[in-house]
Amino acid sequence: MVQLFILYYLSIKQTHGYEIQKFIQMNQMNEWNNIKSGSIYYAINKLERSGFISIVDKSNAGEKAKCIYGITEKGQLELHKIALQEMKKPLGSITAEKFLIYPIVANLNKSEIIESVTAHLHQLENEKAKIIKWEQEKQDTSKSVEKATLSMMKETINLQIKWHMALLDNIDETISVVDKIHQMIKTTDYSQN
Prior knowledge:
The protein is mainly α. The chain has 2 domains: 2-89 and 177-192, Arc Repressor Mutant, subunit A (Orthogonal Bundle), CATH 1.10.10.10; 110-171. Helix content is 67%, strand content 7%. It contains 9 helices and 2 strands, in the order ααααββααααα. A two-stranded antiparallel sheet has the order 1-2. A hairpin with a 6-residue loop joins strand 1 and strand 2 (66-71). Helix 1 packs across helix 4, helix 1 packs across helix 5 and helix 7 runs antiparallel to helix 8. The two termini are 24 Å apart. The model has no long low-confidence stretch (mean pLDDT 87).
């Protein structure tokens, strides 16, 4: 997750880790997603070692120079690959990377998004059919907890289907919002706030 977000941010503009950290804090992403300050700098170092980002400048703000990073061509390819992988993943928990949709949508074209979501919906419908079959087979023999488990599994899949359908139904609107976020990041220095 954190690597996806850092690559996304650096694909918009060259900056330092502190600005990325401030953006995350201002948008409370650190509270509802697992992006913590320490993980940002760890991920930056890892991305640099992998050749996905590189230092393009150093600012001499105060006693400590801040490294300004930019995404490399290799990093752009990795960002697209990660975004496509995330789009195909299920929504497993409330901290699922897919809920942070704009770095994913920003790095895929509309047809890739539609194709990934449609394939995932097909997979979810197949899983739902299996659960319904299990429910029918165990209808008379299931204990309360088993019935509750199957019901919860089915409802979880129904909610995932609903979320993915909302994305498909509102794909142009989502892309428009992503474009606005892109422009906002591009024109604002969040480390000054």
